[in-house]
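TODO from last week: model Methionine--tRNA ligase.
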Amino acid sequence: MKIFVASAWPYVNAVPHLGNMIGSVLSADVFARYARLKYGKDNVVFVSGSDEHGTPIEVEALKRKVSPKELTDQAHEYDKKLFIDVWEISYDNYTRTESEVHKKFVRDFLLSIQRYVKTQEEVLPYCENDKIFLPDRFVKGKCPYCGFEDARGDQCDNCGRLLTPSSLIDPKCSICGSKPVLKNTTHWFFDLSQFNDKIADWIKSSKTMPDSVKAVALSWVSEGLKPRAITRDNSWGIPAPFDGAEKKTIYVWFEALLGYISATIEVNPESWENFWAHDDVTSYYFIGKDNIPFHAVIFPAMLMASGKYHLPDVIGATEYLLYEGQKFSKSRKIGIWVDEAQSIMDIEYWRYVLIRLRPEERDTNFTWREVVRIVNTELNDDIGNLSNRTLTMIKRYFNGEIPRVHYDLLDERDKSLISLMNEAPLKMGEQFEKGKLKAGTDELLRLARENNAYINSKAPWELAKTDVKRLSNVLAISAGVSYTLSLMLYPLMPKHSERLMEMLNVKVNSWEPVNLDSLAGNRIGKVEPLFSKLPADIESKISEILKETRDKVEKNRPILLK
């Protein structure tokens, strides 16, 4: 079994915020780390990259009188360093749309599906002030469906409907605010209408696609798919490969989607097809809900047109993460950005907190009160104190050597905890493979809390005086739970997981339940607290902390991201 994992390609004109992080990048990393333990690292590939073409970058470069690539070179390297060095994202390849491999693949792919591509005269908005045709997202106005006043010409951020600039009410150029005029131009269109029934049948028959994604995709299909332009009238992008399209470039959405394939080619040019052209593959895409139509309709239609590639199996789309009840906003300084986070608390605490707040069923509100509860109660009390008390008692009562299990003395409470210990990672994995990462971590907490209750009820400090064999059972089983917690923590907090493994003097190489007999006799290492609590008053200090952090961080950001 091969496992393909992808996170949505972030556009490089802004530093990602916490909502972007949990919507795609971090979620994909947590799953990829799990998948490598479950299926073997050679059977998993995890890719993404910087989406760097299009008008926003072109316009910014014109303003600054530099080349677009000069801006995106800096931004790409900045984001890549943040993801890999700071946030511990374990990409097999974090590439970019300026990659020569990517540009060649996109052009070749589009030529291979040319029978589904047609030219069409189109009347598009043109800004006479800026002297450019305006891409969809550079036209703003009122959404004709929900009345949202700040809808973009490609999609409404409020209701999620796909739009065109001509469908907006009272459209304006988002660069200068003037009203665009309409001008004729010729573009090349991918004829989605030919895939209406195929997409519907594929979505309905899928046994792995989340229901929320199915609902959005089927809603789209029910309205009737229409041809969608794949070329643009701008210069910063991949030149369109079609005859007569010499001054056109490929629309960034079409090429970024194909980046999942080109990024895999870069990982291993000899064996990349193992992850794309065979049935023995399961593919996972981690995205925000606003990207569902592109991943669940347009991308599969392109793959169907080619007839060569494996269709998505699980699209793990999150709802929105709000910051203290509001949408993240750079201009209004609402939220936290990924290059600010490490100055506030340990990045691995962030990783755990964000997965625990992952908005899987509905929009979720990030509050500092909840962050403090998660770190101080879940991490420190439920998990950290459990491992500390278990290993400390093994040091005290068994001279640091994990005791063996006396199976003839196991009672129902012992057996129940052993059963839960064996089932917990399997149940966590089942949820992960449905794209439900937060739900998976519930199993981690359930095991930790049950072990804490077990120790309290068994009172090993009393057994030490009266029954050494039953004491041995309690601490042997609890050591097994600590091993299992280190395993289940690994996808979320790899460094803290490894610290717990070091204390247990073990290495975890697979997603398998613990063998208690194999732990027996193992001499544990130095025992120290795994986590520490956040100050209870951090909520009242966060504004001051953020202000000081932002002053430092913004000075070091590349020009494009300031």
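Done. The chain is about 45% helix and 15% strand.
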